[in-house]
Records
---
Amino acid sequence: MIGTLIAQERLSTSKRLLVSVGILLLIATVSLATAALRVPLLGGLGLGIGIIAVILVTPVALALLAENYWRTMYGQQGYFTMTIPVRGRELFTAKVLYALIVSMIALAITGAGLIGASAAVSISQGQPAFSVLRATIDTLQAPMVWFLGGAFVLQLVFTVIAGAAIMSIGAEGRYNSLGFGAPVIGGVIAYFAMQILGLISMLFVPLGIRLTGPDAGTFVAQGMLDDFMASLRQSETSAEVSTLGLGIVFVSVLGAVLLAWWGGRSVERHTSLR
Amino acid sequence: MNAHPHHIDDHTEHGERSAPTTAISVTDLTMSYRGRSALDGLNLNLAPGQIVGLMGDNGSGKTTLLKILAGVLADWTGSVRIAGHTPGPESKALVSFMPDASFLPDTHKPADSVAQYARFFEDFDRRKAQEMIDFFGLPWDRTLKEMSKGMREKLQISLAMSRRAKIYLLDEPISGVDPASREVILRGILTNFDEDALMLVSTHLIGDVESIVDSVVFLRAGQVLLQGDADELRAAHGSSLDALFRKVYTS
Amino acid sequence: MQIDDSRPIWAQLVDEFRRRIATSEWPTGTKVPSVRELALELGVNPNTVQKALGEVDRLGLTTTERTAGRFVTLDEVAVSGGRDALASASADSFAQTAQGIGLTLAEATELLSRRWPSAQTSDTRKDAR
């Protein structure tokens, strides 16, 4: 049944997704081409527009997925979806899995688009296509690049799960008189809660990645508390951050697991169509 | 109908059927929306093999009751059994619900909706749906967006009635359609109703369904005000259900 | 037939089915249409049709064979008895109305013979079916 449900998601979203992403990619291609070819006047603008267009692919895909989730679960179409003989958790799982697949593809497209943008910059400067990319990776160093990539993926997974869960929780009977306002408020609350928990965890959880010094890029059993205290002691802000706390990773993972459980439970036990 | 070779039209002995004695059993069902109660300790038992009119004015709890039976409304208290199951996947497999809402995507043509039903409901009879859509004279080449309200309603009825369900819940199936369509829709319902099933049809215009119901349930303020066999009520009160309804509700 | 919502529908159906048998619209020995066909034709609930047919069975105007279905009885006496009952009921109703207007039996009989030919056409049409 999960397979049928995922196929249904594909049917109900693929057209809009393909059209939106297609338009963005068309804009990006044309813009980056003008930048690469140094078309007068347009070239400088083209790079900016191209980068914005490729970056937009991921949030636009997420927005379309969110709209589809809300419409098919809690809009009028919910009257079909919610009478399918499956458990609420199964429904939630299918929707989230599909959204994860789509958002990962979108992120990959954004990544590829950014590489394309760097190539456009290289070409416009008369250098080999990947020279800017190489230089960037050299500056950041490989472990950092992997770390950043992982952070984006984790952040995206969290966003998808949290988005679905918060919409479902917001659609429960006790909040649904607010309409879509309920998940919006829920989203704001979740955002601030994650910021605060993230900050605390980065300070106190003893796991970090060294950013400076000879051992840069290695993991250390240390949070950011030391750096933070040091910067408090020195009145000037000259204190350099030497370690990046990784506690936020745990918070994101735990948050995603908690919200996945809560969201599934919400669909299973508290669905209330208006 | 051909899908039911064992359902001979003329069976006189009702006792031969081995169906459970209650299709729907509701005890002390209470549901409130933000402090305002929609169902207030409702009790109701309905046997299979009949068409039941669920009558009541606006706000009497008809739609709330149907939504709970269909499993799309939670957080109520009391006991609800649908063919022995609490609302959930098991009951949903047996219940065909037609809400008073346009629940199919605007972009669908009838064939898309038929395919969607076929994918999700094992008891869906695709051929029957196609026959009903033809019977209603619906256009196969138009999207729902391009159809009138009456056409959409007929499509939804075609789909809901084409499941070989144990229980059919129809919420205001003939609201907002012209009298000619109403006749056709009622005919469609009568033609496709499986005689071992239970059908619960809500309406606030009793006259519309008067002649097709076996029994009626009158709701008021979230409780059952009156329940009984349609002909027995007519005989006892010497009036149509419509007139009885008016009398009961104005008293 | 026109259903009157203010009277029990099954009783109206019994009257209708008796009329059909008495007038040979359903000739003796022929198969009675199925419950579903009748329900659709009359726009009423199949269970109500079932109940009415049961009553017609009980009156001896039809018989049900388990496998073959339901047939109009071959018993001419029962059928003609049914016709008599139907005619009597109709005559009673006419007589009551006529008395109510103040007609004598002679006047009523005279009226009936005078009006008879004009009612004929609808009768022959019915027989022709």
Note: Chain B touches chain C through 31 residues (CB under 8 Å).
---
Amino acid sequence: MTGDHTILEMRGITKTFPGVKALQDVTLEVRRGEVHAICGENGAGKSTLMKVLSGVYPHGTYEGDIFFEGEPCEFKGIRDSEERGIVIIHQELALSPFLSIAENIFLGNERSKRGVIDWNSTNAEAAKLLARVGLTESPDTKIMDIGVGKQQLVEIAKALSKRVKLLILDEPTAALNDDDSAHLLDLLRSLQGQGITSIIISHKLNEIHAIADTTTVIRDGRTIETMEMHGAEPVSEERIIRAMVGRSLDARFPDREPVIGEEVLRIEDWTVHHPVDHGRVVVDHANLSVRRGEIVGIAGLMGAGRTELAMSVFGRAYGSNISGRILKDGKQIHVGSVREAIRHGIAYATEDRKRYGLNLIDTIKRNVSSAALDKVARLGVVDREGETKIAEQYRKDLNVKTPTVEALVGKLSGGNQQKVVLSKWIFADPDVLILDEPTRGIDVGAKYEIYTIMNALAAQGKAIIVISSELPELLGTCDRIYALSQGRITGEVSREDATQETLMHYMTMEKDGAAR
Amino acid sequence: MSTTMTPETPAQARVSPLARLQGMGGNMRQYGIFGALVVIVALFQVLTDGKLLLPNNVASLIQQNAYVMILAIGMVMVIVAGHIDLSVGSQVAFIGGLVALMMKDMGLPWLVAVLLGVAIGAVVGAWQGFWIAYIGIPAFIVTLAGMLIFRGFAILLVGVTVAGFPAPFIDISGGSIPNFLGFAGNADAVTLVLGAIVIAALVGSQVRARSVLKKHDLKTEAVPLFLTKVVLITVGIGAVTWVLSQSAGGTPIVLVIVGALILAYTFLMGRTVFGRHIYAIGGNVQAAVLSGVNTRNVNFWIFVNMGFLAGVASVVVTSRAGAAVAAAGQNYELDAIAACFIGGAAVTGGVGRISGAIIGALIMGVLNMGLSILSVDPAVQQAIKGFVLLLAVAFDLINKRRAGGSR
């Protein structure tokens, strides 16, 4: 059964929740020293499987066997699995922002003598660990003062401090930009050189391609296929997608025949300053426009001011000292609040749906109606029947996977949550819909659905602005793309002329006009 | 959006099993609290050899605890929005003092004094709401300040006890609905009629709500559960009605006031845009802002409303005491807050119901009354109430954790 080269074997894992089999006879075999990718659509069971492995779901709550380094495991909690050298890093990082890097690394595992912390050894060991993950920050830097990319590395340093043998990363690059992602992948490779085995859960196929030795695809709670990435026959992205969705996606983007009408929204000379640091210009004299039936993209690196531009237009939800003009259907309008923006037919679906987009502890139904409650209310009294009907309609139209619209939004998968966000804004019936990272953290199948919804909305004559970090997504969906760099619009490219290279050129343009 | 936009997806509706339970989750918790109330009533009924549910005791239970229920209604709204109000006890003393002085020193008619008192309550609420909503000071700080400020005002205002109020004013808390229908046997007919109306209305609304759900093929509670609920409503209110009809006065006037407030605020929280906005703010304030909710205005009006209800409570309290004293309303804020949390409101906001807060208030009230009948030392009573609060919230949390897995 378990050979020397196998570090982890999970056999016949079945995990049942009341009414649903989340995992059914799942098998996973990980070789020592490899990077093993697990992919699958949201809700396929990847996270459940990792929770079984790490003891979040204790032994006895699932069926099947786990062998780690040849020995059977019966973990009762995370501590048990960590003692054996299995460490999981969740998508939402578990760091305390007000504590230092060193304090975070040894949180719960303090270097101490009789309960008194030994700061010298804490900082010295932390510095060593930081060097291993390629961080040059001082160990007493506060977590809040470093970016998400570096925080991720601190998490890995923390795992190393626990003498990790098997490192599990749940969508580690979901919140990272390209540079930080690349660095993280390099780090995984160097850890591999140090004999650390990794399991990486990811949606990003190019990433899996770049790093994984083996890829296991899970669908509907079952193992579909385990692929050797460096075998005789190279594994194509298409093949992984096929296994994930159970069908071939001929194209990752649905076809669309744009029917573009007159201009709906024009933003002129738009300048926004930082909300706290009033002297800092975040959006610098930006001009852009969008037409009826058109999908317009905004490309830009992290910190280029994409979200800030969109939110400042959306009723000044961001920024200070905002100047410039907004023209709707050719007429200048004043948009002083989110309410006014909605009334003028402008909608903005946030990049961070959990924090800014949804009330996770409320039902699907009530989230769908939340941006246009007045449409289902008379004299301030909500028509619950009408509200239910509407939510049901969107559930069907957008294919939200839920037994009932009375379910809490917090229990849905990312893709389905995003569909609720879209439902909410479609129900508000805007003329202009700004979608900020509409497919972030969403699996391939759901992405396709979101694109289809975008196309259908454009076909209905809505103007759509898409902000995205994924250039292929912009190239695949947009009619026209603006590039944003350091708060300025540095380029405007039509669908025909756009390539990743031209966009990247504009996105990295410095203030003086030269490329970075 | 009449056409289907999405392509067929092969993946079956893979839904977290927890989502299936969700529709029921909130209700289950409500039943749990209600069950706890029933158990506590039964327990004290046995411990007090049946004294707890003597007609006159039930009437005075309601009269004694009306203020907690009134304050808890406002407080649960404050808590759902993610705030807290520590000042309501001091407000009660301050406004109660004003109402008393308006009647005694200024010679205003009692009704005018009452209406002015309630209006002043709203103004006090507006004062606090201003600082919270428009200046952005946390409610904890503003109402802590208010607790000191209004207690101070109350002491300045009511140097010596003000007493000797007109009879109609005393009747607000002490009187009963006149029995103009006579008696059916030894039962007060007005009370029986009122009880019947309430039962009919509640059962009717349950049936209506269910049929709406049915019409849209939505999950409804299982038939036995639904029938149990209907039977419980009928038996519960029927029993209270029957007992009250045997009491000396019949239906206490204050019960009508509290009942009307419960109905009005249940409607406000459950059915209106304003109520929805309160839940939205408590659930995720940033999402509410980005959905176009004017969070400042909503927060402001929540506190205006709290002040208004503190005004109503102060009238009820002053009427019941028959006198205004500077020390009135001591710890009332804590009673109201405890009622909300026992009733299932979430400390983090976004969750809580009027019905829960009322049941929470009743649990506290029954404890008070039962322990008093057993002549338990007041200090011990207080400690017991503390433990009940702690256990209720702990029970709730543990339940939630069990239902929600690791979340």
Note: The mean pLDDT of chain B is 87.
